[in-house]
Amino acid sequence: DDIDAFILQLEGKKHWRVYKPLNDDEVLPLKSSGDLDKNVLNGIKPCIDVVLEAGDLLYMPRGYIHQGTTLDDAHSLHLTVSCYQQNTWGDLFKILLPKAVDYAMKTNVKFRQGLPLGHLNHFGLIHSTKKLSMKKRAKFHSECHRLLDELLRESVPIQMDNSVDMMAQRFMHDALPPMLTAEEQLTTIQEQGERWNSDFNRVSNVVELEPDTRVRLLRRHCLRVAEQDTNEGGEDDDEDNIVAYYTTDNARSYHDRPLSTLGVDKETLPALEMLFTTYPQFLSIDSLPLATVEDKIAFISTLYEKGLVRTQFELQNSDEEGDESDTEDEDGLMLKRQKVQNESSDDDDDDDEDDDDEDEE
């Protein structure tokens, strides 16, 4: 396969044999192969020969051959998690080098100079073995190397960040939306958001972000700020070209729609940088580098409504005391709060066990 794979056995058992690539051409393949003839593996010893049981995890690197067989006396249910697809140096260079050449042609006159006259008389299939062409071919190669060195030295570094951003966009487009923990549900718009209460015919669960509310990005890679390409001609306006891509609106169907975006201007860019650089720490809304408190709250509110930030603690809603709330919603919240409390207690127990182990040593 052209991916790294993790096999998690959920139920029952399954017999797995894993083989190293059969030759150098199959090492780190660019595309997945079809099913192999079993006879190809005759006489070859697998590097892994194991029966997975419920709870076991098997890792198979890209390009390794694998055979999975269900046992006669047991059913099998497993989950395959694939990753690291099309994430190679070559994939980056496919994006980076064309951008570097375009930039070099715009900014360096050497790349706009014409090719030597007569080069067609010395290059091509017919001329590749002619001894009379070798000297001129060597001179042509030498000039190519000089320009490529200049390209790598001057243009590639300038285009590297934007090229990596484009790789990141592709990764984010393939990604599922973040799966929230119980604590994250209680501290994001998923549970803290306003909802219609049909019993009382009004909006309930209204919460307010305050200047001292502490927030952070939901995930490090749920949001990415990038500069859009402007290859349509005309003058570039860096401010108009900057956008933020995010994954919280991604569908669970593969590539169901394009990545969602937010516009970014020069005023909000420093605030976004601060959220990225302080992650995973929480910061107060009031500490953001924006002009007014209203600007700070409006900025975070936009991210909050998109599910891109969470609060450190569950926000208090402004429903009047004594009102009866939706029973099902309230029961669901209580269960999640209890789950968060239990998870916190489990973490404390683990810490206590670690302390006990250290004392015994």
TrEMBL record:
Q: State whether keyword Repressor applies.
A: yes
Chain ranges of the JmjC domain:
1-100
Query: Any keyword Ubl conjugation?
Result: no
Q: Where is this region: Disordered?
A: 315-361
Recite the UniProt keywords alphabetically: Chromatin regulator, Dioxygenase, Iron, Metal-binding, Nucleus, Oxidoreductase, Repressor, Transcription, Transcription regulation
Cofactor: record remark: Binds 1 Fe(2+) ion per subunit.
Where is this chain compositionally biased, Acidic residues type?
Answer: 317-332, 344-361
Q: Which cofactor does it need?
A: Fe(2+)
* Subcellular localization: Nucleus
Pfam families attached to this UniProt entry: JmjC_2, WHD_RIOX1
Question: Which family is annotated?
Answer: Belongs to the ROX family. NO66 subfamily.
- Biological role: Oxygenase that can act as both a histone lysine demethylase and a ribosomal histidine hydroxylase.
Report what the protein is called.
Bifunctional lysine-specific demethylase and histidyl-hydroxylase
> What species does this protein belong to?
Adineta steineri
